[in-house]
Amino acid sequence: MGPVAALAPLVAVLALVVAVLALPPASAVFTSTTANPANTLAADQLQPPSGLTATTSCASSTIEFQGATSARGSGSLTLQTPPETRAGDLLVAQVSNWGGPATLTPPPTGWNLVRRDSVNQVNQVNGTPQVTSALFWRVASATEPATATFQLAASVDTAGGIAAYRGVRTTSPVDAHHAMTGSSETTTVPSVTTTVANTVLVHVTTKRQEQLPAPGGTAERWRLLSGTGTSIQGVSAGDVSFAGPGATPVRSSASSSNFQAEWIGQTLALRPAPQQPAAILTWTASPSSWADGYQGRRLVNGTVQGSSTVPMGTTTFTDTGLVNGTTYTYRVWTHDGTWVSTEQTTTLTPSC
């Protein structure tokens, strides 16, 4: 073997040693990769949305007038149920009588007294009551009677009417009510303060010996006298929507004959029925703005009830068809094709 051939293995070994020494330690390789802002691991990680919350929405229905009837009587008042009435509608009745609060026998089944007001003879604090007006409500049934008779214990003139409304809350339907009395040409119906939005105001007037138009700005539903002669009263009713909540306007009904006499003005506000509760989901957008969007699920007791997908850029979603008192779990995550992030979770128990 010549000298050159003998040195060849040694040269190869030295070259390998130099190559090993040129490599950085393992920790240096890991540090340089993870510290690199543009490393592919960090760039490719699909981030979830954050701050997922769920709140209840209790949108209310719109109250709609259906129909009205009116009548007069003596010692009692028989009112026909408006023919447009359906089960679940709210019926509002006015029953007025000449003189004081002649004792009513128990009202027809299902009718509930809201208020009853009388006005005394003018300038007499303890004078004889001149006219009286009572307001009642009832939820119509599937077998609603054709008439309702309100019986008094005295044979006095009576007059009034029934109006039917759809979309009213069937439990505690009256949000607020109030009355005013006086003696003048003009009758005033008072303001009330509503606690919910989208009520309907029913304004009712009663005046000795004169029928007044429905208060200004309302749709008239009835207007009539209880009879002829002097021992009579006139009644009227009108309604109007009120956005609210808050204080309602004071309205008036003016006499066309300038006749001054005792009067009663009554106001009640009908509360709209709540629709099915809904959940409003909101979240903060995922930093992975290049993803396709978000997917979500609604679960009850671990069972999936529904799922939805919204595009990237969306940070809110409304889920309808909920039931009061049921606890719902919502899960939302980011997706890009079949690639998904971790989930964000929140719960909601609606109560409307």
UniProtKB/TrEMBL annotation:
Residue ranges of the TM segments: none
This protein's record includes keyword Hydrolase: yes
Keyword entries, A-Z: Carbohydrate metabolism, Glycosidase, Hydrolase, Polysaccharide degradation, Signal
A molecular-function term among this protein's GO annotations: hydrolase activity, acting on glycosyl bonds
GO biological process: polysaccharide catabolic process
Domain of life: Bacteria
Protease listed as a keyword: no
Gene3D superfamilies: Immunoglobulins (2.60.40.10)
Signal peptide location: 1-28
InterPro entries assigned to the protein according to its UniProt record, in alphabetical order: FN3_dom, FN3_sf, Ig-like_fold
The protein's name: Fibronectin type-III domain-containing protein
